[in-house]
Amino acid sequence: TLLYKWIGMILSMLLVADITYAQTAMINVASRKAISLNGEWNVILDPTGIGEWRQIWLENKAKSKTDFVEYSFEGSPTLKVPGDFNSQMPELTYFEGVVWYKKEFSCTPVKNKRLFIHFGAVNYLATVYLNGKKIGSHEGGFTPFQFEITEGVRSGINALVVKVDNKRLQNGLPGLGYDWLNYGGITRDVNLIQTATTYIEDYSIQLIKGSRKEVKGWIKLNGVNREQTVKIQIPELGLAYSAKSDRMGLAKLHFTGAFKLWSLENPKRYRVSVESETDSINDEIGFRNVEVAGSRVLLNGKVVFLKGINIHEENPYKGARAFSKEDAILLLNQAKALCCNMVRLVHYPHNEHIINEAEKMGLMVWSELPVYQHIEFSDTAVVSKMDLMLKEMIRRDRNRCTVVIWSLSNETYDGTPNRTKALATLTQVCRQLDSTRLITHVTNSQSYNNNSFKVVDSLYKYADIISINEYIGWYMPWQGKPENVSWKMAFPGKPVFISEFGGEALFGNVSGAADEAASWREEYQQQIYINQLKMFNNIPNLCGVAPWLLFDYRSLGRMHPVYQKGYNRKGLLSEKGEKKLAWYTMEQYYKRK
Ligand code: GCB
Q1: Read out DSSP for 167-203?
Q2: Which residue of 469, 528, 563 sits with most ligand 1 atoms within 8 Å of its CB, as the best mutation to test the pocket?
Q3: pLDDT computed for residue 11 by the predictor
Q4: pLDDT level of residue 12 (50, 70, 90 thresholds)
Q5: Residue-averaged pLDDT of the chain
Q6: Pocket test for ligand 1, best of 311, 475, 500 (most atoms within 8 A of CB)
Q7: Atom of ligand 1 nearest to the CA of 555
Q8: 89 and 77 Cβ atoms separated by less than 8 Å
Q9: Residue 464's pLDDT is what?
Q10: Which atom of ligand 1 is nearest to the CA of 410?
Q11: Locate the Glycosyl hydrolases family 2 sugar binding domain: which residues (predicted)?
């Protein structure tokens, strides 16, 4: 076992040390000098994975009339980027495998500038080639990454080839089983970004926990000229702060401001300019404080009940992965219509548009890692992947005040070897990286006997909020009156959040008579909600709830031929946006709260 452990450790160290592994992306791409590579990309479908052997990235072309090349981009179909491939070609509807993408771009390298290629996300494995040479790879379908191509880029036309593989992996994140459609492809924006030779790679500008005016943070420079004077300015507050970066390019920030806080009623953001001697960048930053005091969650010092809703990254009307500002607004408008003040973005980090729009609309965001159900925690490579993904997730959004909760796992099983140790370490790393937000792990390991819940999980010790998924009334029957359900918590002092509950119904499947309740009917789903809301009154320290979920969504595991047809039907809205009866029950509850 020890030998295997060592081999595993060495392999995962090699993975991290792999020089062709992608760099963690610079932040705030939206305000950089960029050329978008979005649009039509040529593709080659490679269901058997033979393209590796045929060296597709070399773009072989027929040299004579009798020569032939089977795997060629010449005359190949195209797919839209950003976008998943499953929804764009009927033959790819449920496809999980390799698709090769190619895009040409023209470039005039500029002296004393650096060039990066930045991917918002590629699901799941991306291997990237520039002009016939591999420049690197990235694993993980929901976080950004980049490669520097200052050296490799040519003057004139360049060819970028990306091998995208969305096959499920036993040691992937998520692993083999999950209840959503595995949309593959280059699912988020691709940009060429030009920077100064020393550029602002990352910065952290947020209030420290517990304070409403004190900011502690840093700016990180990347390049050869790392010792510089850096400046933060917030013109609206007349605030100008400067500091010196050290040999590593790190400048510490510490200042106070008379901020109007970002709140649900007034989601105020300030224009902030971040400058160094060689680079400058603008951002819109909100300032707020979120904390747990005893068993309560406080936003800016006031108790807040989290009126949540679960949302997958899917445009229901298109049956496609959501990626745009329009998609984000569509989803969030419905969350607002339900009177929510928080969205739980499941089960992986969503795109930056939805984070931004939520921030502008005054909706709090719960962001989650795809550490979902069956994860191979004893595989050291998995542990390294979790660590890296956590860093990628936090880095991208650490200045987005709307993100109030990092959720590090969903429904992992307490008895899985190494699970609690791995997730406890992950929690610790998360706190070190970001002490300004709350951390949770979602569990479903509670027992329900004699109409009584016993909530025990070794992870609760590490979480700020105890998050519980329970489906009483759907996956298991009520054992007594909902209003009489009793709750026993292993960690009694902490706030409790019901992160999932609900049941399935097909929109329009109504009996009209309440006593004719039957599965898949709207009344049946609504009754689950009525009962759940009664039960919530008895949950000690309840700090919020989130129904599962906003819209019906596509999932391979949901193939009931009449009622599901490839959709998980637990939505309060159908995939066409029609309101089911349970919507009204939930809306009323949130209005009252
Ligand atoms: C859960 C999972 C969620 C599923 C849901 C369901 O507990 O967290 O991803 O989709 O149940 O519908 O069963």
Answers
A1: ---TTSSS-S--SS----B--S-EEEEEEESSEEEEE
A2: 469
A3: 59
A4: low
A5: 95
A6: 500
A7: 10
A8: yes
A9: 97
A10: 8
A11: 36-195
Residue nearest to atom 7 of ligand 1 (CA): 469
Task: Determine the distance separating the centroid of ligand 1 and the alpha carbon of 179, expressed in angstroms.
Answer: 6
Average pLDDT over residues 237-247: 98
Euclidean distance between CA atoms 498 and 408, whole angstroms: 16
Distance CA 370, CA 168 (A): 13
pLDDT at 473: 97
Separation CA 369–CA 408 (nearest Å): 5
3-state secondary structure of 391: helix
For residue range 400-424, list pLDDT tens digits in order: 999 999 999 999 999 998 999 999 9
pLDDT tens-digit readout, 355-409: 999 999 999 999 999 999 999 999 999 999 999 999 999 999 999 999 999 999 9
Residues in the ligand 1 pocket, defined by CB under 6 Å: 179, 347, 410-411, 444, 469, 500, 548, 568, 570
Q: Please compute the mean of the pLDDT values over residues 91-119 and round it to a whole number.
A: 97
Instruction: Enter the CATH code of domain 208-287.
Output: 2.60.40.10
CATH of 292-592, one of 3.65.10.10, 3.20.20.80, 3.90.980.10, 3.10.620.30: 3.20.20.80
List the one residue out of 264, 268, 234, 228 whose CA is nearest residue 248. 228
Round the CA-based radius of gyration of the chain to a whole number and report it.
25
Q: Where do the domains of the chain lie? A: 2-196, 208-287, 292-592
Q: Is domain 2-196 given the CATH code 3.30.70.1350 in the classification?
A: no
